[in-house]
Amino acid sequence: MNTHSTTSEPSLGHSYDGIQQYDNPLPRWWKWLFLASIAYCPFYLMYFHAGAPGRSVDEQYQANATENTRKQYAEIGNLSGDQQTMVKFLKDPKWVGVGQSIFKANCVSCHAADGGGNVGPNLCDENFKHIKALPDILKVINEGVAGGAMPAWATRFSHKNDVILVSVYVASLRGSKPAIAKAPDGSPIPAWPIE
Ligand code: HEC
Q1: Less CB within 10 Å around the terminal CB: N or C of the chain?
Q2: Cα 4 to Cα 14: distance, rounded to the nearest angstrom
Q3: 121 CA to middle of ligand 1, Å?
Q4: How many CB atoms within 10 Å of residue 164?
């Protein structure tokens, strides 16, 4: 016999195979907590997942992690913007990620979040207007082109490595598939060297 049968809790009066159901409602506070969490959830979703970018825990983590990496510039010293250095960093996702965070902070208004292009050209396709080799990317970003329609960035970053790493990130975009790809501009160029 189960211990409940001797208590004074009211039974709901039905019995299946000798199993009876007692009337033990969830505590009132528990039910209110449950309802409150349902009422809260649309606001949570809207704020963290559909609101301004950068609010979700994952995005905040990514931002902090890359910011932290940026503080490790001592590890790589002052980069020189030659082709060999760019190829080397192109193979290192950690530093390409730093380039990506710099791109997100400065370039997306004209080139779109994934480089697909907006006012500025699509950076993901095989066609370029001002670029034939890797170091040209750095030159265009440093000096700007088209009378400032593409601004010069040489003096806008706090560290010279920033502009080199954002160039490496731009190089890494080539061949990726942006959500909205602007029609190609300029002419096709040879593949990036592998070393
Ligand atoms: C104010 C808008 C604007 C911003 C901000 C901007 N760009 Fe541009 N960018 C342009 C335009 C416009 C062009 C094309 C110029 C032309 O047609 O000659 C361009 C061209 C380029 C090119 C050369 C593409 C080619 O086909 O040769 C690269 C690389 C580039 N931008 C990278 C960047 C990076 C990296 C950033 C951020 C640090 C950035 N841009 C920020 C407007 C912008």
Answers
A1: N
A2: 15
A3: 7
A4: 28
Asked if residue 113 lies in contact with residue 181, where contact means CB atoms within 8 angstroms, the answer is: no
Count of CA atoms in the C-beta half-sphere (13 A) of 108? 12
Distance 150 CA to ligand 1 centre (A): 4
Q: Which atom of ligand 1 is nearest to the CA of 166?
A: 35
Q: Count Cβ neighbours within 10 Å for each residue of 100-119 and write b for 16 or more, e otherwise.
A: bbbbbebbeeebbebbbbee
Distances (CA, A) of 145 to 17, 18, 44, 111, 127: 84, 85, 43, 14, 16
CATH class, domain 57-188, is: mainly alpha
Distance CA 43, CA 139 (A): 46
Q: Are residues 192 and 174 in contact, defined by beta-carbon separation less than 8 angstroms? A: yes
> Domain-by-domain residue ranges, the chain?
3-49, 57-188
Ligand 1 mean position to 83 CA, how many Å? 20
Q: In this predicted model, what pLDDT tens digit does every residue of 76-92 receive, in sequence order?
A: 999 999 999 999 999 99
Which tokens sit at 76?
A: 């790589």
pLDDT digit string, tens, across residues 95-114: 999 999 999 989 999 999 99
Among 173, 175, 180, residue whose Cα is nearest residue 118: 180
